[in-house]
């Protein structure tokens, strides 16, 4: 099966908030805001994973409904230096 990368979820620290964006594979230009949560709320690893899964599940459902695209998530990777903001 082909590995067509149509986008990704990027999590970034912005001040005291952890922000999730949907972005194209190789750029943050025109990234879509998905949601955010206070950094103090995701210090707990289990809660952090819950937030990440909520975002991934939501994006997966939207892509399936809107463009009939099955989503397969890969292991997280660190953002390139030019995309990092805040304390990311």
Can you summarize this structure?
With 88 residues, the chain is α+β, with helices and mostly antiparallel strands. The chain is 26% helix and 24% strand.
Features:
single chain; 88 residues; alpha+beta; 3-stranded antiparallel β-sheet; 1 helix; 3 strands; globular
Largest sheet: 3 strands, antiparallel
Q: How many domains, as an integer? A: 1
How far is it from the N-terminal to the C-terminal residue, by CA?
A: 33 Å
The counted number of beta strands is 3
Residues in helix, %: 25-40%
**Based on helices, strands and strand pairing, what is the structural class?**
alpha+beta
Which sequence of SSEs, written as H and E, runs from N to C? EEEH
Beta-strand residue fraction: 15-25%
Q: Identify the overall geometry.
A: globular
Estimate the mean pLDDT confidence. 85
**Poorly predicted runs of 5 or more residues:** none
Computed CA radius of gyration, to the nearest angstrom: 13 Å
Give the topology, please:
Blueprint: E1 8-14, E2 17-23, E3 32-38, H1 45-67
Antiparallel strand pairs: 1-2, 2-3
Please characterize this protein's 3D structure.
The protein is an alpha+beta fold. It has one domain. It has one helix spanning 45-67, and strands at residues 8-14, 17-23, 32-38. It has a 3-stranded antiparallel β-sheet, covered by helices on one side. Strand 2 (17-23) and strand 3 form a beta hairpin.
